[in-house]
């Protein structure tokens, strides 16, 4: 008898890091169960129970192939290396480098500074938003210049990659949580609106995930 090892994603529906992994699993057609971890109201990520899953007490965490992997980019790399088709990597060394540059702009230069966990370190919510919007705008300026040179239908040419999985969730955060206007960045804005219509992002969109949780 073959014992099935279930793939489980521990995630928060509104988390950008969770969304990029959710989208990666969906794109690669990997069946998985999503277990919600409320990091806002219930703060389930801070429980001792969740610490046994991820010692850093952050989402996402992916249980796959009999092991647990944390950190969204490490998870995506693992999925790509163990399940290379369909691929999330461009087909030349230079294009893969461009993809990684875009990923780094987002996951190092924008996402951490939007993290809700930072808010408690500011005197007011308004001061936190001012701080976050400043650094997000800096990141958007960089992305606009980068994507002018690399984008086609996707961030890097006409092939979806990890860069797209990073871009969409972070821009969604910028627009919905921080009411940022992308019109000043036409390349970024056009690409974002186009990618939102892609099946991979529609199916894994936070609104759809939250609706399933509430059912």
UniProtKB/TrEMBL annotation:
Pathway: Amino-acid degradation; L-phenylalanine degradation; acetoacetate and fumarate from L-phenylalanine: step 5/6. One of its GO terms (molecular function) is glutathione transferase activity. Belongs to the GST superfamily. Zeta family. Residues 92-213 form the GST C-terminal domain. This is maleylacetoacetate isomerase. It catalyses: 4-maleylacetoacetate = 4-fumarylacetoacetate. Gene3D superfamilies: 1.20.1050.10, Glutaredoxin (3.40.30.10). InterPro entries: Glutathione-S-Trfase_C-like, Glutathione-S-Trfase_C_sf, Glutathione_S-Trfase, Glutathione_S-Trfase_N, GST_C, GST_Zeta, GST_Zeta_N, Thioredoxin-like_sf. It is an enzyme of class 5 (isomerase). Keywords: Phenylalanine catabolism, Tyrosine catabolism. Pfam families: GST_C_3 (PF14497), GST_N_2 (PF13409). Its cofactor is glutathione. It comes from the Eukaryota. Its EC number is 5.2.1.2. GO terms for cellular component: cytoplasm. GO terms for biological process: glutathione metabolic process; L-phenylalanine catabolic process; L-tyrosine catabolic process. Residues 5-87 form the GST N-terminal domain.
